[in-house]
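tool=predict chain=A
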Amino acid sequence: MPDTQPSPAACLPIPPPPSPVTGPPRPSRLSRALILGYATAGYGFFLAVLAYAVGFFIGFGVPKGIDQGTHLAWPLAVITDAALLLLFAVQHTVMARSWFKRRWTRLVPPPAERATFVLAASLVLALVFWLWRPVRGTVWDLPGPGAAVLLAVYGAGWAVALGSTFVISHSDLFGLRQALSYARGSACRPPAFTQRSLYRVVRHPLMTGFVIVFWAAPVMTVGHLLFAAAATGYILVGIAFEERDLRQQLGEAYRAYAARVPALIPRFRPASEGDQ
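tool=predict ok
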């Protein structure tokens, strides 16, 4: 999953080598326009995949939902789906690491690094939706009011996930701010570490929202359960990697924050004087 707190390595463009006579060369207008157009197009594709995802998990308004499509023998269906989820996990985990970003930006212009991550994630997720195979069997099927409640929870999960991206910087998270800063010729620095709004309740509200989305299903089939369980497990592993990076980058400030605020599940308690 995307980083949920700013990473200093994600937003600092690496300048080109200086010229001994004229100093650092300025990027051409064409290169700036191309990178901005690339980031914008990638963001547009991400929005399309995101809109499809909203319908995919509840099987509404999309050509193929999580419980629709060609049925295979259950062992083959499970292997296919597990391989797709593994591909998504590997892409996210590797491309989000600092060591990969340092090497990757030798090939990809640094201002386009985050946009490339977003585009790659969107392409892999689109592939998951396309090739996903339903697995027969129903775990639960809630009728009437129960289904309506879970659909409301499902919508709330999306609201939490999307809302959390705007608390820090939505444009930074999806690579737009980096490309826009480059196009303007200005320095791009990551947004400040924040503990406000949803981040006062949980450290990873984006992931909390996704967990709600995965599990708030009026009809939970075996295939949907496979996705929800595997994706939740990956979120827990991904958080462990991300927290390690954040502790290294932010030091004592993040360690104190982690000691006070839970990772995914809110800790409801009376507010102390220090919280006021």
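The first strand starts at residue 138 and ends at 141. The CA atoms of residues 13 and 213 lie 35 Å apart.
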